[in-house]
Design goal:
- The complex is a heterodimer of chains A (380) and B (328).
- Chain A has 380 residues and is mainly α.
- Chain A has helices at residues 21-46, 52-64, 69-83, 147-171, 176-192, 195-215, 220-233, 244-257, 262-278, 283-303, 308-322, 336-356, 361-378.
- Chain B is mainly α and 328 residues long.
- In chain B, a hairpin with a 4-residue loop joins strand 3 and strand 4.
- In chain B, the strands form two sheets. In chain B, strands 1-2 form a two-stranded antiparallel ribbon.
- Classes of the chains: A mainly alpha (380), B mainly alpha (328).
- Chains A and B meet through helix 1, helix 3, helix 5, helix 7 and helix 9 of A and helix 3, helix 4, strand 2 and helix 15 of B.
- Chain A: Pfam families: PPTA.
- Chain A: Keywords: Prenyltransferase, Repeat, Transferase.
């Protein structure tokens, strides 16, 4: 991970801040090499040189410092102005092209402009501001290569960029800039490739998200990234269909590996309403689903009553029982008698936890909260 | 509470002068590799250091004129600020720039020597997503409730909140709420103490605390306290001094700091000090940095540690500053 020096570091043991002369010299050597490289890149950025050579220099600099967001931006500009093909997006028959960029604008205008949309810059699906660049394209657009060739070339660039960032991400899994650069590259796949090709790129990305979560099951960057990748894979732009069953199964697998993974429980709670709707679940199917979730959570609580993750998920299930207007997924049409019976059973089960665990605060908190719920149900 | 702190053993006293010296030394470390690798955080770092010094009662420990000159040297024609000269403009550094200038009472310099107060406001307002109401960090489109809060923070300090669609942004925050009362990075994302701070503070600036489920959120936040007295940022994670700020300020905004054991939190923060060389770390015995230093001190300020200036729980700036700028 890049040294965040005196700004922000986590979990690094405090040591003497006095360096030996040898360490000091090593630092000075690093600084000289780093600043030399940095000067070269910044001098090129200053004269809007986004050539392949600048691109190569950004690779070297980003390997030393993946937090350097300005250099990621320069790398995007290099790709837009010299690497990616410059076909107008309308030439891709498989794509909607209602927001085609003009192909012959901005030539010769000031390179200081901060908002000129680039010629041939594809519309960005995720954000109205993304995909614009602070530079102007060289007006060298030629359409002499066939679509197939330029598609293949674009795909090669996209794959090469995804490969480039993997070791950086493995080393700095919480670096926002790397994640957001990868997403930008993936969005290029949607804009520049036929849907089937682009889909393949995004499917590979889902495997990467799984790999990152295997390394750190609670990395919220990776969980958020996974949700985003799945949403794209489900979208019409990638000829997608719902993946809710597969994602629900993924949360089950993650919870089996580690009951304390609240990220997985959270994701599960978020997926359930859609899951049941898409299954076309009737009241009985919803009741059975709730029973299964309650059983599973209860069993887990018997093993780990100190685990907040389990209790938060249990609260979500209970909210489905007592607050159907806000949480209608699992028990939308229970009678009040049903709700009371379910709640009483949960209270009994929690009381029985006290036989083995009479000093766990969370058990008492649950009894307290759910007893109040019961009182309100019984008294209208 | 003041009485109790005085009864703490020597090593749990606040090492004010060491912290002041530590922060003053941060810009003199140009022979350290880490100094150069962190240039993308320079303006944020200045805000963290300056705020810590003000809370410690040493507002003049950094030279005011150089501070203003440096901030202005980071501004682009677009009105936005980069992290340092030569770095691209970004929401995070722009917010820090506004906070620094407000703190040293130099917002007027934006008009006299900078690109103009309105231009800064326009840079920020242009980053709002007109469909969803949320904000991007820069022209490349990464979106996060951190940027939404940053926009509310800076625009309110500049008196320019009218440049954005506040209602739409508020709707977006509401969409980020979870069943546990917390908020995530975006709709569907897990509750996280840092994002809760950004969402609750933005709702507070917008005057829309009515949207917060205060009972459930207060409970979730208070359950961040672990056996050692420190606070974590999510269930089943380790405690960390920076959450002394994200969690505690959120509790303060909803009027529930008494739901945690404040004395034990203060003791935890104080145990994370390097009393000899200054600075505060994430956990006792770890390397210090200016980020944990400011959030540790801001936490102690909210806990009414004696001798510290009062901190504004919404802005993470001295209360005297926000009162002056916002006219409270």
């Amino acid at each position: 991970m890049a040294d965040q020096g005196s700004y922000s570091q986590h979990g690094i043991a405090r040591t003497s801040r006095v360096r030996t002369e040898e360490q000091r010299q090593r630092d000075l050597d690093h600084i000289t090499r780093y600043r030399d490289l940095e000067d070269q890149v910044r001098e090129r950025i200053k004269r809007s040189d986004y050539s392949p050579e600048t691109f190569r220099l950004t690779s070297a600099l980003l390997k030393l410092n993946p937090e350097y967001y300005t250099i990621w931006n320069a790398r995007r500009r290099c790709l837009i102005s010299s690497s990616f093909s410059k076909r107008p997006s309308g030439s891709l028959p498989s794509k909607a092209s209602s927001t085609t960029s003009p192909t012959a604008t901005t030539a010769g205008s000031s390179t200081e402009s901060s908002s000129a949309p680039l010629a041939a810059t594809p519309p960005n699906l995720a954000s109205p501001t993304a995909g614009m660049s602070g530079t102007t394209a060289e007006e060298t657009t030629q359409y002499d290569s066939s679509d197939a060739e330029s598609e293949a070339a674009d795909l090669a660039i996209i794959q090469s960029e995804l490969t480039f960032t993997i070791p950086l991400l493995l080393e700095s899994p919480k670096c926002y800039w790397i994640w957001s650069y990868r997403l930008w590259i993936l969005e290029q796949a949607i804009s520049r490739l036929p849907a089937a090709r682009a889909r393949g790129v995004w499917e590979d990305e889902l495997r990467l998200a799984s790999r990152m979560l295997d390394k750190d099951r609670r990395n919220f960057h990776a969980w958020g990234y996974r949700r985003h990748v799945v949403a794209q894979l489900e979208s019409p732009a990638l000829n997608g269909k719902s993946m809710v069953e597969a994602e629900f199964a993924y949360t089950t697998a993650m919870i089996r590996k580690d009951l304390s993974n609240f990220s997985a429980w959270h994701s599960r709670a978020r997926l359930i309403p859609r899951l049941l709707d898409e299954r076309g679940a009737d009241d009985e199917a919803r009741r059975k689903f709730l029973d299964a979730e309650l059983n599973q959570t209860r069993e887990a609580l018997n093993v780990g009553p100190e685990d907040q993750s389990l209790w938060y998920y249990h609260q979500y299930l209970i909210l489905n029982i007592v607050r159907p207007s806000q949480y209608p997924a699992m028990a939308p049409h229970f009678s009040t008698t049903d709700r009371i019976a379910y709640l009483e059973r949960e209270l009994d089960e929690i009381r029985s936890l006290l036989e083995d665990y009479d000093d766990v605060q969370l058990v008492y908190e649950a009894l307290f909260e759910y007893t109040l719920f019961l009182y309100h149900l019984q008294n209208g | 509470m003041a009485q109790k702190f005085e009864q703490l053993p020597e090593e749990l006293q606040l090492a004010t002068s060491a912290h002041v010296k530590y922060i003053q030394s941060l810009d003199t470390r140009k022979d350290e590799y880490g100094y150069w690798l962190t240039e993308h955080l320079r303006l944020n770092g200045l805000y963290w250091g300056l705020t810590a010094l003000h809370l410690l009662g040493h507002p003049d420990a950094l030279p005011r004129n150089e501070t203003i000159d440096f901030v202005l040297s980071c501004q682009h024609d677009s009105g936005g600020f980069g992290a340092a000269p030569g770095h691209d403009a970004h929401m995070l550094s722009t917010v820090s720039a506004v906070q620094i200038l407000a703190t040293v009472d130099a917002l007027d310099e934006l008009d006299t020597r900078g690109k103009g107060r309105l231009q800064v406001g326009k840079f920020i307002a242009n980053l709002q997503n007109s469909e969803t109401g949320t904000f991007a960090g820069d022209e490349w489109g990464e979106e996060d409730t951190r940027f939404l809060y940053g926009a509310f923070n800076a625009l309110s300090l500049l008196g320019l909140l009218h440049l954005i669609d506040v209602d739409k942004a508020v709707d977006h925050i509401a969409a980020c709420a979870n069943f546990d009362g917390g908020y995530g990075v975006s709709p569907g994302a897990e509750s996280h103490a840092g994002q809760i701070f950004t969402c609750v503070a933005a709702l507070t600036i917008a005057g829309r605390q009515d949207l917060i489920n205060k009972e459930r959120l207060g409970r979730w936040l208070s359950e961040r306290q672990v056996a050692g007295g420190g606070l974590n940022g999510r269930p089943e994670k380790k405690e960390d001094v920076c959450y002394s700020w994200w969690v505690l300020s959120s509790l303060e905004m909803i009027g529930k700091t008494h739901w945690i054991d404040r004395d034990r939190l203060a003791a935890f923060i104080l145990r994370c000090q390097d009393t000899e060389n200054g600075g505060i770390s994430d956990r006792p015995g770890d390397m210090v940095d200016v980020w944990h230093t400011v959030f540790g001190i801001a936490g102690l300020s909210l806990l009414k540690y004696p001798g510290l200036e009062a901190v504004d729980e919404v802005y993470c700036m001295p209360k005297a500053v926000t009162a002056r700028v916002l006219g409270h």
